[in-house]
């Protein structure tokens, strides 16, 4: 396998007339790293990936692969492997001929081609399918052929545009594991586009959150989840309750914030104004309404109780009309935390101070 | 393989009781076609196997003499071969011209694609007769021919192009007439190709022309064969174009047929010529279909033997 290389994007932009698809994306991806581009539909993930591939010409900015300028290099000279959402196998060629295609384009000899094709098909466990036409394979098998076809040319980069989007949930999860193992084993640098946050969490070393063509936040899955930088990220990855109040007092241990619904927060920050705070639903615990007001908590009224197996989702309303959502864990055998909760009941929701995440409001 | 298979003709079910009404509605049309197309065609074809008598009658004894003369006597044979040559060259030239046009229709920006479409289809609304007159004016062998006048003006010598009243004038005009019939099925075939498949070829290291040869071309074969069989058989069957532009050197089977029937009063020979013309048209269609199936069989055999 070729030595893994790094990928650097600098100020990468794509405009379609007045339409801005991608704007000023600057990003460095280390050799052997798998980075996921994640974001809502139309945020520019595919366009970014296609600029790296050479299928879309950037309006501005630069692309460097292994330190080499490739911004002006045509597609067929970039040596990049790509998986498409609809597999894009050659329908008129057998599986073996599909995998051999890239080697033939490189003028590799017959004997070596046959050997490398066999190796690549063995890698994706499809050796016995070599003589079939793509139409005779299932979606998952076709995508594995596409993976073998992309990897056999020993590309410097692997690009994946929602490669598992057309597969059902179980197959998608097992393919995620397989994809991850192969990428690790070969140590190939990879960029994955997805709008499935679980897929991004499962596969990626780092996640890039995109919004309206721009980078919103870059970090490991844990960083993105536990330290979201903005309201958008906190709401996009997992669920979040957003709370905003007014400064009640400043003390040695931080800022005390009074919430309009009667609750309060304690923040160890030094800001002038009361910031926006995100609290994950699973951080919230429920106590009796007549207890004392906790350091971080608020009285609320239960609106809906949804039993979901591992969790009970508790939908509440604060006294100022804002919603509050809690996920209560259901440990098998023990009485569930959410047991006996009735609609209309008054409760006291509370959480540890460490669950308060200060986010930028945008 | 779905991408290369022609649409299969659906079996025509024998009408049940409920469809007697629709059968009755079909009847007048069918009767008309039978009386004025099928029957006369069969009579004409049968004539080919009979003898033209001095009395003007076409009657038994049955004979293959007409076909023998058509296929082996030098003058007739020349016309037959010329017909095949014109049809072949016309098909070839239309294929070469049609691909870029079809690709523009299939892949270009919508406004450009529509413009090309209109330009390609436009000649179809002008009658063959008018178009042939147009080509007479353009290709005239003297200074009055527009092309020669133009070339002379730019300094190519006196009347450099002398193709009027040869088969080449017929080819030029036929290409003009039949180009849309090649472009349209090709464009349809091209739009059915998943663009990601071509992008995949490019990403795997294929320069644009190699991606075309290895992926686009094979996947557009259904449209290509449809276009070739139509253009080939229509060119081989043409009458007005060679009559107006071919002269005696460029006369084709259609003109020979006319001459046999109206001048030589040899209806037996006319029948034989008609028979051969029908055979060429059928041959072009069957040959094209067979070619696709042959490719598929060969591919399956090749992959089975690997
Ligand atoms: N060829 C094009 N012409 C004009 N606008 C385009 C073109 N391609 C993409 N866009 C626009 O650029 C923006 C980004 O598109 P892109 O396909 O990159 O989004 P995406 O993040 O991949 O979305 P999805 O999750 O739906 O695939 C969209 O607003 C889209 O409409
Ligand atoms: Mg996309």
What does this structure look like?
The complex is a heterodimer of chains A (362) and B (306). Chain A folds into two domains: 7-236, P-loop containing nucleotide triphosphate hydrolases (Rossmann fold, 3-Layer(aba) Sandwich), CATH 3.40.50; 241-359, Nucleic acid-binding proteins (OB fold (Dihydrolipoamide Acetyltransferase, E2P), Beta Barrel), CATH 2.40.50.140. Chain A contains eight helices and 21 strands. Chain A has helices at 45-53, 95-105, 110-123, 139-151, 169-186, 197-203, 221-226, 231-236, and strands spanning 7-16, 19-29, 34-38, 60-65, 68-69, 80-83, 157-161, 189-194, 206-211, 214-219, 241-243, 246-251, 254-258, 264-267, 276-279, 285-288, 297-307, 311-317, 323-329, 346-350, 357-359. In chain A, the strands form five sheets. A six-stranded mixed beta sheet of chain A has the order 6-7-8-3-9-10, sandwiched between helices. In chain A, 42% of the residues are buried. The model of chain A has no long low-confidence stretch (mean pLDDT 91). Chain B has helices at 20-47, 65-72, 74-107, 110-121, 128-139, 146-153, 167-191, 195-203, 208-219, 221-236, 240-246, 253-262, 267-305, and strands at residues 51-52, 58-59. The longest helix of chain B is centred in the last third of the chain and has 39 residues, at 267-305. Mean pLDDT of chain B is 82; it is low at 1-9. Chain B has a single domain, classed as Orthogonal Bundle (MetI-like fold), CATH 1.10.3720.10. Chain B is mainly alpha-helical. The complex binds adenosine-5'-triphosphate and magnesium ion.
């Amino acid at each position: 396998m070729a030595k893994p290389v790094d990928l650097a994007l600098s100020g990468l932009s794509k405009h379609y007339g007045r339409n801005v698809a991608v704007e000023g994306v600057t990003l460095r991806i280390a050799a052997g790293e798998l980075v996921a581009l994640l974001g809502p539909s139309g945020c520019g993930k595919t366009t970014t990936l296609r600029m790296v591939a050479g299928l879309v010409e950037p309006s501005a900015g630069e692309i460097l692969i292994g330190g080499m300028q490739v911004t002006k290099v045509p597609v067929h000279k970039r040596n990049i492997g790509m998986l498409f959402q609809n597999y894009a196998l050659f329908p008129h060629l057998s599986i073996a001929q599909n995998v051999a295609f890239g080697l033939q384009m490189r003028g590799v000899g017959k004997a070596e081609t046959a050997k490398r094709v066999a190796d690549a098909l063995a890698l994706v466990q499809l050796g016995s399918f070599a003589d079939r036409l793509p139409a005779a394979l299932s979606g998952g098998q076709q995508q594995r052929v596409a993976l073998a076809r992309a990897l056999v040319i020993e590309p410097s980069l692997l690009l994946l545009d929602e490669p598992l989007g057309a597969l059902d949930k179980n197959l998608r999860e097992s393919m995620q594991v397989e994809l991850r193992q192969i990428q690790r084993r070969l140590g190939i640098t990879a960029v994955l586009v997805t709008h499935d946050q679980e897929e991004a969490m499962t596969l990626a070393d780092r996640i890039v959150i995109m919004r309206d063509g721009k980078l919103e936040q870059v970090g490991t899955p844990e960083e993105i989840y536990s330290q979201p930088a903005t309201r958008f990220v906190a709401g996009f990855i997992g669920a979040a309750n957003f709370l905003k109040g007014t400064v009640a007092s400043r003390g040695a241990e931080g800022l005390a914030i009074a919430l309009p619904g009667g609750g309060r927060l304690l923040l160890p920050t030094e800001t002038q104004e009361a910031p926006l705070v995100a609290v994950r639903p699973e951080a919230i615990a429920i106590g009796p309404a007549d207890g004392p007001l906790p350091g971080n908590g608020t009285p609320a009224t239960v609106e809906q109780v949804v039993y979901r197996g591992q969790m009970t989702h508790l939908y509440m309303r604060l006294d100022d009309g804002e919603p509050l959502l809690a996920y209560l864990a259901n440990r098998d055998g023990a009485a569930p935390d959410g047991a006996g909760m009735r609609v209309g009941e008054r409760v006291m929701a509370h959480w540890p101070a460490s669950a308060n995440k200060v986010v930028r409001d945008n | 393989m779905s991408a290369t298979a022609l649409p299969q003709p659906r079996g025509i079910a024998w009408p049940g009781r409920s469809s007697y009404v629709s059968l009755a509605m079909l009847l007048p049309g069918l009767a008309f076609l039978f009386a004025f197309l099928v029957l006369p065609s069969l009579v004409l074809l049968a004539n080919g196997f009979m003898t033209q008598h001095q009395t003007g009658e076409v009657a038994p004894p049955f004979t293959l003499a007409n076909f023998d003369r058509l296929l082996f006597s030098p003058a007739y044979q020349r016309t037959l071969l010329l017909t095949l040559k014109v049809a072949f060259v016309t098909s070839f030239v239309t294929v070469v011209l049609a691909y870029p046009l079809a690709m523009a229709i299939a892949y270009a920006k919508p406004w450009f694609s529509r413009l090309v479409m209109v330009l390609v289809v436009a000649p179809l609304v002008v009658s063959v007769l008018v178009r042939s007159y147009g080509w007479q004016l353009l290709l005239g062998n003297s200074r009055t021919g527009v092309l020669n006048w133009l070339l002379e003006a730019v300094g190519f010598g006196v009347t450099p192009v002398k193709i009027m009243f040869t088969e080449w004038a017929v080819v030029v005009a036929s290409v003009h007439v039949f180009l849309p019939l090649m472009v349209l099925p090709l464009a349809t075939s091209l739009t059915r190709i998943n663009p990601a498949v071509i992008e995949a070829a490019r990403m795997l290291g294929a320069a644009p022309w190699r991606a075309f040869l290895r992926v686009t071309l094979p996947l557009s074969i259904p449209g290509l064969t449809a276009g070739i069989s139509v253009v080939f058989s229509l060119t081989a069957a043409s009458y007005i174009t060679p009559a107006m532009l071919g002269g005696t050197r460029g006369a084709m089977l259609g003109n020979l047929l006319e001459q046999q029937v109206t001048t030589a009063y040899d209806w037996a020979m006319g029948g034989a010529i008609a028979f051969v013309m029908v055979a060429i048209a059928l041959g072009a269609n069957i040959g094209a279909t067979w070619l696709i199936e042959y490719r598929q069989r060969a591919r399956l055999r090749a992959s089975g033997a690997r």
